[in-house]
Amino acid sequence: MSSKDIAIRVSSLSKCYTIYDRPQDRLKQSLIPRIKHFLGGQPKSYFHEFWALRDVSFEVEKGETVGIIGRNGSGKSTLLQIICGTLTPTGGTVETNGRVAALLELGSGFNPEFTGRENVYMNGAVLGLSKEEMDARFEEIVTFADIGEFIDQPVKMYSSGMYVRLAFAVSACIDPDILIVDEALAVGDAKFQAKCFRRFDELVQRGTTILFVTHSTEQVVRHCDKAIVLDHGQIIKIGQAREVVNLYMDMLFGVDGEKKPPLDIRMENNKLFSGAQSIANDTLGAYRSEKDQFETRAGYNPYEYRWGNGEAEIVDFCVTSGGRLHTNRIETGHPVIVTIWVKFHCRVEFPIYGLIVKTPDGITVYGSNSRDFAHGPLHLPADRGDEYKVRFTLRDQHLGSGEYLLSFGVAKDQDGEIIPLDRRYDAVCVLVDNRISKAIGLADFSMEVEIEPEREGVLNCCS
What we know:
There is one protein chain. By secondary structure, this protein is α/β, with parallel strands linked by helices. The chain is 22% helix and 31% strand. The chain folds into two domains: 3-247, 3-Layer(aba) Sandwich (Rossmann fold), CATH 3.40.50.300; 259-433, Coagulation Factor XIII, Chain A, domain 1, CATH 2.70.50. It is built from nine helices and 18 strands. The protein has a six-stranded mixed beta sheet with strand order 5-6-7-3-8-9, sandwiched between helices. Strands 10, 12, 14, 15, 17 and 18 form a six-stranded mixed beta sheet that branches. A three-stranded antiparallel beta sheet has the order 2-1-4, with helices on one face. Helix 3 packs across helix 4 (131-145) and helix 4 (131-145) packs across helix 5 (160-172).
């Protein structure tokens, strides 16, 4: 790919910090090694190294939206700071093509003693814009930030929400070629976040490249062309957003190679499923018993994502609606019963069964489980060889027309930690038909409309 098509190129990037256990060790490190070297002795180090990033390389094309995800301490913020130029790498290079605007951690980029107006112009100058260019954009920035008269107050008086509003407005309204956003948007309210993502869409249409860090996997699936997952300062995977999010979910729930299933758990064909490997070699799953009809049922999705430690399996399911068994077509307003059959391969003291309904682009419509639902928790221990039928009844089902994906899961609570036994995500596709109305959207609220003439001179807004 031509260099002119690349917005960001990161090559062999590394960042190392020196960590001192005690304050006096810093002083020792600055003096003793020099003395020993002068006397011909072997210098000793009084610190240990922490590599926040190690040999990170990737490219982002112009116009792409890329999400960076990873557990706390994985190096996400360090990576963004180096790309923005606010942090110097230990090794490697970063190349950016175009004007870079950044919204990093709350507090960066603004002088707390300056007013909002002064900080807007200062940020514009830092980004290379003239006063005349900032004058032309100032009203748009103030309108987007929506902080009113506080624009002329010192930003040290701002709430965190006001602060991030103004910071994002500056970054998004100067027509950047590259917009980099750390998790600062998490402090904004729902209305402001929606406003930000609308601006994201506008910027993408203009060809802006967006790189942002978030813990919201739904935002990554919804808004990103591709994603990067970091762990311990290294890239674990780069690829299509949904695939990367699935791997990240594995890592969050302990299915990352560090926690292996007990050796005494065996299935009849001596296979255990764990993470993506469980379906990579066999999309029908690593184990199929005589009762396992899961993959033959209506609506089964062969591209499901399955993981778990193998202590239990979801071997069958049934969707019932309108008196029809094993259907993948349901009608708005009709109760839906989703049943799964779970087989256990060892004793589980506190199994938890869950159901999630999502849109094809990853937005969660509904999710709950046998521990957290309104009448829970339901607690029924299972022994090795037991098979349980679990029925989820959605009585007030008012989904809008369209396709939805069902995900099932069985896990256990082990000393407060949730251990996945078998999770089958996006396993079933159902088609919802709304014959009640022509309403659009994810839900039908059964809206009623009344129209009546108003008597002249009388305001009747409530009756």
